[in-house]
Design goal:
Blueprint lengths: L2 E4 L4 E4 L10 H4 L8 E5 L5 H13 L8 E5 L4 E6 L5 H7 L6 H20 L12 E3 L10 E3 L14 H4 L6 H17 L12 H11 L2 H4 L5 H11 L9 H7 L16 H13 L20 E11 L6 E7 L1 H13 L3 E8 L2 E7 L6 E7 L5 H9 L3 E7 L5 E7 L5 E7 L4 H9 L2 E9 L2 E8 L3 E9 L4 H9 L3 E7 L4 E8 L8 E6 L4 H7 L4 E14 L11 E3 L17 E3 L7 H14 L6 E7 L6 E5 L13 H20 L2 E2 L8 E3 L10 E3 L6 E2 L21 H4 L6 H17 L12 H11 L2 H4 L5 H11 L9 H6 L17 H14 L20 E12 L4 E7 L1 H13 L3 E8 L2 E7 L6 E7 L5 H9 L3 E7 L5 E7 L5 E7 L4 H9 L2 E9 L2 E8 L3 E9 L4 H9 L3 E7 L4 E8 L8 E6 L4 H8 L2 E2 L2 E15 L8 E4 L1
Antiparallel strand pairs: 1-2, 2-3, 3-5, 4-5, 6-7, 8-21, 8-22, 9-11, 10-11, 12-14, 13-14, 15-17, 16-17, 18-20, 19-20, 23-24, 25-26, 27-30, 28-29, 31-44, 31-46, 32-34, 33-34, 35-37, 36-37, 38-40, 39-40, 41-43, 42-43, 44-47, 45-46
Helix pairs in contact: 4-6, 4-10, 4-11, 6-9, 18-20, 18-25, 20-23
Enzyme class: transferase
EC number: 2.7.11.1
GO molecular function, one term: protein serine/threonine kinase activity
Length: 1108
């Protein structure tokens, strides 16, 4: 029996083909001659796993799970399985350590079909990886069929294991799918970011890297379906049932239409989709989750304070925070003099926080602030005096605060200091009757205190790299309560226990804040008492916005025989730009632009070559040299780039294409030492779009481009047009000349928002103060362009002519294209005339000066009784409202500015009854819920600068259901989800930087859109007006303004709507306007609100009236 290879637990061999007649085969079976079998000599495995494979194949006729049979002799035990072909690892290794997108997609859908069948019978594989997927034997009908083997492990392989497997959580379906995601990414890219770690803590380092790597970063060089697949599976709950057919459908766009030529047989996937969908009705592709999921693993660390509140009887309690070492004794002594003792301590940035109360039950207390972590000698001395550790804290500087008390229930204690979380020690002590009672960290070191007679009947640990919300809620449901916690910069650990004596009120609540929760503590102090509170540091839970995919360059060999390309080392002579496989239409766009118009656009075509570091499909751009990015460039060099870039963009725009990602990296020069070495080329149309007959729209959740160079309209999610390419070109030229842009260096989850805000706040004068005047003039023109405005390219080119040398032959960049475009197009179409002037002077935008504006919206209505109040203080509000109600008026809208209120009351609201609340909290949840129970609906809301809010709720509205959301940023994704459910925005407001949005069913609208901007979006509003939209709700923070425009189901008799912008409440204009008539109808105020701190189009010096 020749040995094939050695295994971890034995050897692997192929047995000879049996030659005996049929009747003798039974005798020879024990001699190792079963036909077409492989025997793995291993220790006795778990029978249930082998039985699982057999049942899956026999009961469900699942031929793609390999049957394992068992044989035993006096010496050893053997496992026998059908012989198959190569594994996916072998295929990947033999094909240049990469796989095409189609190959990976076929593997994905077939793997999902196998796992669905396995999961439906209650089995989890536990070790999904390339080595465990095998193809059928070559030259047989099954050579393209995928098989899954090895159900004996169930623990996972470090490289492909899910994060939950690393953390020791019970395996479930989500773990198989997460491992499958890593397998697919590895097969496509050839490498995973966490490969290469070694040492005893390899699993910890790999898990940490997985948590810190967002799906966007991990899949930046992969087809979009892989990123979508990974995002879905890493956000799944423990017992959540995957929507397999939805997951399979993600990859259908990557698979060729002809099943016969696919690299992997995908019959199983189709069979699973249709069979299971018909039988059980649970694999519907269009199925959607009931609730949107919060994304995890977004890769940005953050600091959080986590407070735990337990319901108790009221008691005297005092808290101190940001306490320096020198002040600690003063606070403690004063508390003890008042009959208070320390119940818990914490530390942050080498400062201390402590809670002292009268309900600890301790009789005496001592403490030590030591420069060493958990000073052993002092603790031992206090144990001798019958003191026990009741609370500990460690600072980032290595010091510690240890509090020890008499009068505890503990009978024995033990503690351990470790460089990693000491779970093995904890587990050992649990068996001895100890329970964790205190924990602390300093740097990466852990200190854990365990006590006998701690009053617990059971205890568990939740260890994670982020706040383990799911695990905590599951434990809470089983009667556990958080009793201790600590965190390093990498990991957080929570101890949850079941008390022996069930408390009268088991309520426990957690609060996460970025600072010590002093405001919240004061609010809850009347009926809640802090039980335990603590700090998390470095928890990976904040979102991240990436600047864009950086494209690495590879070198390909010069074409050899018959035009075929062969891969060579870095000495190759052909330059290539690398990125995701672009959309076919963009490559076709580049090809057509080059063939029809001879534009200097690189033809993009997939080569099928693979880069071993990134293992992605390379896109080659034929015969290009280096890109133009340097530290700084002379004025003449920048001017040459400007005129030639404008000539390239003009030709592209004239054919209806917008590039979408203009930046230095996408402008390349020709190859050195060739006639084209000074010729400029534009590459990478991967973000390009067709500009022909594209309607204006805005999707604030959509960003395309590179953050540093993107236009402000791109940041705001507006449809790309020619002006965006030109604005990006302006930033590119300024960067090349100055070497830096003012908005470089921003980081964090709101990077795109901060960069856009900075762009809006930076005037052309400020941005171009060290640049030639031509750059300032160019920027002023392009940032003032309208969406569909056709640029005057020759006028723009002429701005830079004064910076160009007189002799074209010695210019650093060839500018023939610019001159050719100017004269050819100018003669043929007469539209690039340098002397052409605009019909109307343009109003300047982005002047960088913040201002406060009142925006009033007027709708034509029949005359009615109406009253308005402004600059109303809190104390005077009730008086005005009661007087209006007595006169038959109800509130139609409210607003706030500088902590004063404005309200409109009229007789035409249609409401039958009305209530309101002026609350110090923003949109008081409990009160709103109570009024909903009484069939009141929110009709108007307003928030003030101090965080308070005014909520008006009415009966007699047309609404049938309402929902609202409070968010730290404009919640467009939530709004978009609610639109799909039939809700429409009916009210909005802000308080400082927080947004409150109310959405209602049966709101009377047939469609709705959002205009979000850093200034008053005049152009967008007028475009929406032209399409039948009318402003129905609006709000603004100090940074952004949002307007909701809707199309009413019932077309009003007079659709006139007007807006007025003033620097103060428009009382004078309202009086005049209410006294006039228009088209036989009286103009009435519909909505009033304040915009504060916006970077406006004009300096506010008076009234500015616009009409739609």
């Amino acid at each position: 029996m020749p040995e094939l290879r050695k295994g971890v637990c034995g050897g692997l061999a192929k047995l000879a083909q049996p030659q005996q007649p049929q009747e003798t085969r039974k005798q020879t079976r024990n001699q190792g001659r079963k036909r077409a079998a492989a025997a793995a000599v291993i220790e006795v495995g778990r029978p249930r796993t082998r039985l699982a494979a057999k049942r899956l194949k026999e009961e469900e006729e699942h031929p793609q799970v390999v049957v394992i049979s068992e044989r035993e002799s006096d010496i050893l035990r053997e496992l026998v399985m059908d012989i198959l072909g190569p594994s996916l690892w072998d295929v990947w290794n033999s094909s240049g350590q990469t796989m095409s997108a189609e190959m990976v997609a076929c593997i994905a859908v077939e793997s999902l079909s196998i796992l669905e069948k396995m999961h439906s019978k209650g089995y989890v594989h536990g070790d999904v990886k390339p080595e465990n997927f095998l193809l059928g034997q070559p030259s047989t009908p099954q050579e393209k069929k995928l098989f899954l083997v090895d159900l004996g492990l169930g623990k996972g392989t470090v490289r492909y294991a899910s994060v939950h497997a690393h953390l020791g959580r019970t395996a479930s379906r989500r773990d198989d799918l997460e491992s499958l995601a890593y397998t697919l990414i590895f097969l496509h890219r050839g490498r995973l970011p966490w490969q290469g770690y070694q040492g005893d803590n390899k699993s910890f380092l790999v898990c940490k890297k997985k948590m810190a790597t967002s799906p966007e970063m991990l899949c930046c060089f992969c087809p979009p379906p892989l990123k979508q697949f990974l995002e879905i599976v890493v956000n799944m709950k423990f017992d959540e049932e995957p929507n397999y057919s939805k997951l399979i459908s993600l990859f259908e766009g990557l698979i060729g239409p002809n099943p016969a030529v696919r690299p992997i047989n995908t019959d199983g996937a189709q069979k699973i989709i249709y069979q299971v969908g018909q039988k059980r009705g649970r694999l519907t592709i269009d199925e959607e989750d009931d609730q949107p999921k919060k994304k995890v693993r977004l890769g940005v660390p953050a600091t959080q304070w986590i407070s735990i509140y337990n319901a108790r009887l009221p008691m005297k309690q005092r808290y101190h925070y940001n306490v320096a070492d020198a002040r600690l004794a003063q606070h403690v002594e004063k508390g003890m003099a008042d009959g208070l003792l320390i119940s818990c301590v914490a530390s942050y940035t080498n400062l201390w926080a402590l809670i002292m109360d009268a309900g600890t039950g301790f009789t005496s207390q001592v403490y030590e602030l030591s420069p060493s972590f958990l000073h052993k000698e002092w603790i031992m001395d206090q144990w001798e005096k019958n003191y026990y550790i009741s609370s500990i804290a460690g600072s980032s500087g290595g010091s510690s605060l240890v509090v020890m008390s008499k009068g505890t229930q503990y009978t024995q204690q033990s503690y351990k200091v470790s460089d990693s979380f000491p779970f093995k020690w904890i587990n050992k002590k649990w068996r001895e009757g100890f329970y964790v009672t205190s924990m602390a960290t300093t740097g990466s070191r852990w200190g854990v205190v365990m006590s006998r007679n701690a009053g617990f009947s059971d205890q568990v640990v939740e260890l994670d790299f982020l706040y383990p919300s799911e695990g905590i809620h599951r434990r809470w449901d089983n009667g556990y309560r958080i009793t201790s916690t600590a965190a390093t910069s990498d990991q957080a650990a929570l101890i949850l226990s079941i008390p022996k004596r069930k408390p009268g009120d088991e309520t426990q609540e957690t609060l996460r804040t970025s600072q010590f929760p002093s405001t919240h503590v004061k609010k809850l102090h009347n009926d809640w008492v802090i039980g335990v509170w603590f700090q998390f540091y470095g928890v990976y839970e904040m979102p991240v916005l990436r600047e864009g995919v950086s494209r690495r360059r590879a070198t390909l060999a010069q074409p050899q025989q018959g035009g075929k390309q062969t891969r060579r080392s870095n000495r190759g002579r052909k330059r290539a730009a690398e990125g995701e496989v672009g959309r076919p239409r963009t490559r076709l766009a580049a090809k057509r632009l080059k063939e029809e118009n001879k534009v200097q656009v690189g033809v993009v075509a997939p080569t099928g070559e693979a880069d071993r570091e990134f293992n992605q499909q390379v896109i080659s751009i034929s015969e290009r040299g280096s890109d133009i990015e340097r530290k700084e460039m002379s004025a003449e060099m920048v001017a040459c780039i400007a005129v030639e870039s404008l000539s390239i963009l003009e030709k592209m725009h004239s054919k209806g294409y917008v590039h979408g990602d203009v930046k230095p990296e996408n402008f390349l020069l020709g190859q050195p030492s060739t006639p084209q070495e000074k010729k400029l080329f534009l590459v990478d149309l991967g973000l390009g779009d067709s500009g022909l007959h594209v309607d204006y729209d805005q999707r604030p959740d959509m960003f395309r481009g590179t953050v540093r160079y993107a236009s402000a309209h791109a940041h705001l999610g507006r449809t790309a047009s020619r002006r965006d390419d030109l604005e990006s070109l302006a930033y590119t030229l300024i960067f090349l000349h100055r070497g830096r842009l003012p908005w470089q260096g921003y980081q964090g989850d709101n990077k795109s928002f901060l960069v856009c805000k900075k762009k809006m706040a930076t005037s052309p004068e400020m941005l171009c103060c060290f640049c030639p005047p031509a750059l300032k003039q160019f920027l002023e023109i392009v940032v003032n362009m309208k969406f569909d405005e056709e640029p005057n390219y020759s006028k723009l080119i002429s701005l830079f002519e004064g910076l160009l040398g007189p002799n074209p032959a010695i210019r650093p960049i060839n500018t023939d294209g610019a001159q050719k475009i100017i004269y050819q197009v100018g003669q043929k179409r007469g539209r690039l005339n340098i002397d052409e002037d605009d019909d109307q002077p343009k109003k300047k935008v982005r002047l960088g000066v913040p201002a406060t504006q009142w925006i009033s919206v007027y709708n034509a209505r029949l005359p009615m009784k109406q009253r308005y109040h402004y600059n109303v203080a809190d104390a005077r509000l009730a008086q005005h409202v009661e007087k209006g109600i007595a006169d038959g008026l109800l509130i139609s809208c409210v607003a706030s500015c500088t902590n004063l209120w404005a309200l409109i009351m009229d007789a035409g609201t249609g409401f039958t009854s009305q209530v309101y609340e002026l609350s110090p909290s923003f949109l008081h949840k409990e009160w709103i819920m109570d009024q909903w129970e009484k069939n009141y609906y929110i009709s108007s809301i307003a928030g003030s600068n101090n965080g308070s809010s005014l909520v008006v709720m009415s009966k007699g509205t047309q609404y049938t259901q309402q929902s609202y959301k409070v968010s730290d940023s404009f919640p467009f994704k939530w709004i978009n989800k609610k639109w799909r459910e039939g809700f429409y925005v009916t009210s909005m407001t802000t308080a400082v930087s927080r947004w409150g949005v109310v959405m209602s069913r049966n709101a009377g609208f047939s469609d709705q859109v959002v205009e979000l901007d850093f200034l008053y979006p005049s152009e967008g509003i007028h475009r929406r007006w032209d399409n039948g939209y009318r402003i129905t709700s609006t709000a603004a923070t100090l940074d952004q303004a949002a307007l909701i425009l809707s199309i009413p189901k019932r077309k009003p008799g007079d659709e006139t709507q007007e807006t007025l912008r003033t620097s103060q409440f428009p009382s004078v204009h309202v009086k005049n306007h209410n006294g006039t008539r228009k088209n036989g109808q009286k103009i009435s105020i519909f909505l009033v609100y304040a915009m504060e701190g916006l970077y406006h189009e004009i300096h506010v010096i008076g009234d500015d009236f616009s009409e739609g």
